[in-house]
Amino acid sequence: MDDDFDDRGPDDGGDRTSQVRGALLKALAVVVVIGVVIALGTTIMVRALGLDQTDSPGPVGAAPSGPVTSSPTTALPVPGGEQTPQQPSRSATPHARSGAIRLDVSPTRVGPMERVNLTGTYKGADNLVLKVQRFESGRWSDFGVDATVRVGTFATYVQTGRPGEQRFRVYDPVAKQGSNVVMVSVA
Fold first, then answer.
1. What are the φ and ψ backbone dihedral angles of 75, each rounded to 5 degrees?
2. Read out DSSP for 61-82?
3. Max alpha carbon distance in the chain (Å)?
4. What are the E-state strand segments in the chain?
5. What is the dihedral sign for C-alpha 74, 77, 81, 85?
6. pLDDT tens digits for the chain (187 residues)?
7. In this predicted structure, what is the pLDDT of residue 66?
8. Which SS3 state, helix, strand or coil, does residue 44 take?
């Protein structure tokens, strides 16, 4: 007899099928675990960023939660009227209304032409451009710097050589909505 002859019986094919089935079940279990981890991670990130606000009246999400440090105001142009500046704050002021733009500044005291970081949130907004504005001569003027909102947050910086107290805000020209005002002292 030949030693190379395959002597498998009818049950040996069943072992092979069981092995393949077991490997497929293990691969399926790994895929399910990965899917669950991705789903949990996505849910946690959506909630952490506040993008799960479904009760907002428009495409922009709800206002940020947290303590209110001062009463919010807006300084939008009044047709035919004189503009008055908002009350400035040294830090961001959460607004009580939906879709408010929240602005933070750091540092609040700088020398001429030193960097002033402007960061903030615009809940529910993404991929839109905000204009940085400075209050001068009784009105808001574009400062020539933009900040792009990415997944509800933005960051940019300004530099100014003008001495004294400077008031800044960011402005959404599409929604015609301004942020809280921040004050920077240039010495």
1. -120, 75
2. -PPPPS---S--------TTS-
3. 110
4. 101-106, 109-110, 116-122, 128-136, 139-149, 153-158, 164-172, 177-178, 182-186
5. positive
6. 555 555 555 556 678 999 999 999 999 999 999 999 998 888 887 777 766 554 444 444 444 444 444 434 444 444 544 444 444 444 333 333 347 999 999 999 999 999 999 999 999 889 999 999 999 999 999 999 999 999 999 999 999 999 999 999 999 999 999 999 999 999 9
7. 43
8. helix
Query: Can you tell me which residue has the tokens 């089935």?
Result: 21
Where do we find the tokens 């790994």? 30
Strand partners, 155: 119
CA atoms within 13 A on the CB side of 74: 17
Q: Give CA 105 to chain center in angstroms.
A: 16
| Cα torsion 121, 143, 118, 66: sign | negative
pTM score: 0.49
Residue whose structure tokens are 């008055």: 84
Cis peptide before 107 (omega within 30 of 0): yes
Task: Output the six-digit token pair for 14.
Answer: 């069943």
**Nearest-angstrom CA–CA distance, 153 and 167:** 21
Six-digit token string for 171: 């402005």
Give CA–CA dist 103/173, Å, rounded: 16
